[in-house]
Design a protein that fits this description.
This protein has helices spanning 3-8, 29-34, 36-39, 41-60, 63-66, 73-77, 115-118, 133-137, 175-185, 202-210, 230-247, 272-287, 289-320, 328-337, 339-350, 360-367, 380-407, 452-460, 470-477, 484-494, 504-518; strands spanning 13-17, 101-106, 111-114, 140-145, 155-160, 188-194, 218-223, 255-258, 467-469, 501-503. The chain has 542 residues and is of the alpha/beta class. Among the domains are: 3-19 and 78-289, P-loop containing nucleotide triphosphate hydrolases (Rossmann fold); 441-536, EF-hand (Recoverin, domain 1, Orthogonal Bundle). It has an eight-stranded mixed β-sheet with strand order 3-4-2-5-1-6-7-8, sandwiched between helices. Helix 4 (41-60) packs parallel to helix 13, helix 13 (289-320) packs antiparallel against helix 17 and helix 20 (484-494) runs antiparallel to helix 21 (504-518). It is elongated, with a radius of gyration of 29 Å. It is a peripheral membrane protein. Residues 450-538 form the EH domain.
């Protein structure tokens, strides 16, 4: 049973795809020793830069009490996700399984780790979750599984989202706060909706709002799309986009994948090709996460640094405006009430983008529980240290990324195993037997099946010594109304011997490729071996 199948049997849920790429698993120990400077450059430098330049600013202005716990080494080392076999401790059923957060990680032996044990493990990145208390930890667990996929990915599955009257029942812990913590640290956030039961409850709305500021990580899956016909699917898609437009505060539209992720027969087969294309795109997106994880860490650290700077300005301003003796409580209330004006003033004074400021209402609520007189005044040196980090250290690390990608073997920078490998090299793999791949497994030249239509045309064009010139071929090819850029690519693929002319076989190949393009297929960068005309193939020796 696949993870996607599990999702299909649940009501709308939110899946946080925790994807913190860990480059250490991608190479052997020997490889690491040979190239330590390049290999550890990004991950180790991120740790060093954070501890030396950003952490002092966060601690000085109580950043961790307002926004996010301090980052630890496991936050930088942890890894990326997708599973296709059952994992220990899972529960499935038609009802929402609303009881727990489950982290699915790689382990040599299958088993589960309860939440209380998980948060005291210094080798894992979940220690800060202990602040959410026993009510949460009792509903938090890690399931370990010996899966090839989990060697490069980690899954965080959230509880099912409640709807209707059930959502009024308190979970006993800060559910939205837990989601926010995960959203800051994952590489991909997947919001899962059922096409036949589209419902954005108030709790789901709060969950979506909890991932605010991380919209670039969000992907949306419209699941069970085979349960509705093509006309209903169009309406459901429109309703989903309309609903999400009211929740997301960004002008960009989140990427939506439409599909039916289970192994049962499709109820409505009319959209089969659409589902296959969408599933392929989703898997490609997830498969490339390890390759881009270091860049994601850099991006998240930059966002954190910008927020920490703004937070420092806010805290120091509030400290400066507090009286030294009398009327402290009254002044505190005035400052909190006028926090929006303070935002505007700081924005002008320090040339800060409005998007860098924390949420106004939430900041006002948090400030009520703090003593402003205990805040620290502004230390320009700490601000300058973070500015230097953003301007020089981050730029240096960015330049190291291409080197690190070059060191890592290409096959190790993508997710392998499971659903990513099981259908490859079979007739059912994506695009197999279609487009330029058609006829790859056949003994006969696939172009030869249709060449009778083009052989007569070739003779009518008046070949000389069995070939037509480029000018004559162009006059024929432009009748397809394809752009010159596409026809130029087709010409280069068809002119196999590169003599600037086309013989009978090459002319047939050119027309075959034109028809493929007209049918909506993409052109290859290089001509596949099976499309090479038999007359142009190098004879096999031995």
């Amino acid at each position: 049973m696949t993870l996607m199948e599990i999702r299909c049997r649940r009501m709308s849920s939110l899946a946080l795809c925790a994807v913190n790429a860990m480059f250490s698993f991608m190479n052997s120990d020997a490889k690491r020793k040979k190239q330590p400077e390049v290999y550890v450059s990004v991950t180790e430098s991120l740790k060093k830069v954070y501890k030396q330049k950003l952490l002092p600013l966060e601690e000085h202005y109580k950043f961790h009490e307002f926004h996010s716990p301090p980052l630890e080494d496991p936050d930088f080392d942890a890894k990326p996700m997708i599973l296709l076999s059952d994992f220990p401790g899972m529960r499935i059923g038609p009802e929402p399984t609303t009881d727990r957060f489950i982290v699915v990680m790689y382990g040599e032996q299958d088993g589960t780790i309860p939440g209380n044990a998980l948060v005291v493990d210094t080798k894992r990145q979940f220690r800060p979750l202990s602040r959410f208390g026993n009510a949460f930890l009792n509903r938090f667990q890690c399931s370990q599984l010996d899966s090839e996929v989990l060697k490069s990915l980690t899954i965080v599955d959230t509880p099912g989202i409640l709807s209707g009257e059930k959502q009024r029942i308190d979970r006993g812990y800060d559910f939205v706060g837990v989601l926010e913590w995960f959203a800051e640290r994952v590489d991909r956030i997947i919001l899962l909706f059922d096409a036949h039961k589209l419902d954005i409850s108030d709790e789901f709305r709060r969950c979506i709002e909890a991932v605010g500021g991380n919209e670039d990580k969000v992907r949306i899956v419209l699941n069970k799309a085979d349960m509705v016909d093509h006309q209903q699917l169009m309406r459901v898609y429109g309703a989903l986009m309309w609903s999400l437009g009211k929740v997301f505060k960004t002008p960009e539209v989140a990427r939506v994948y439409i599909g039916s992720f289970w192994d049962k027969p499709l109820h409505h087969d009319i959209n089969r090709r659409l589902f296959e294309d969408e599933q392929h795109d989703l898997f490609v997106d997830l498969q490339g996460l390890p390759r881009n994880a270091a860049l994601r860490k850099l991006n998240d650290l930059i966002k954190r640094a910008r927020l920490a700077k703004v937070h420092a300005y806010i805290i120091s301003y509030l400290r400066k405006d507090m009286p030294s003796m009398m009327g402290k409580e009254k002044r505190k209330k005035e400052l909190i009430q006028n926090l929006d004006k303070i935002y505007e003033q700081l924005q002008r004074e320090h040339n800060i983008s409005p998007g860098d400021f924390p949420d106004l209402k939430r900041m006002q609520e948090q400030l009520q529980h703090h003593d402003f007189s205990k805040f620290n005044s502004l230390k320009p040196k700490l601000i300058e240290m973070v500015d230097g980090m953003l301007s020089s250290d981050i730029a240096r690390l960015m330049s190291h990324l291409p080197q690190e990608e070059h060191v890592i073997k290409p096959e190790r920078s993508f997710v392998k195993g499971g659903a990513f490998s099981e259908i490859r090299e079979t007739p059912f793999s994506f695009g197999q037997g279609e487009g330029v791949n058609a006829g790859a497994d056949e003994p006969q030249w696939v172009v030869g099946k249709e060449r009778y239509k083009w052989d007569e045309t070739f003779q009518q064009l008046g070949p000389v010594d069995g070939k037509i010139t480029g000018a004559i071929a162009k006059a024929h090819m432009v009748k397809s109304k394809l752009p010159n850029s596409v026809l130029s690519k087709i010409w280069k693929l068809s002119d196999v011997d590169k003599d600037g002319m086309l013989d009978l076989d090459e002319f047939a190949l050119a027309n075959y490729l034109i028809n493929l393009k007209l049918d909506g297929h993409e052109m290859p960068v290089e001509l596949p071996e099976h499309l090479l005309p038999p007359s142009k193939r190098v004879p096999q020796i031995g």
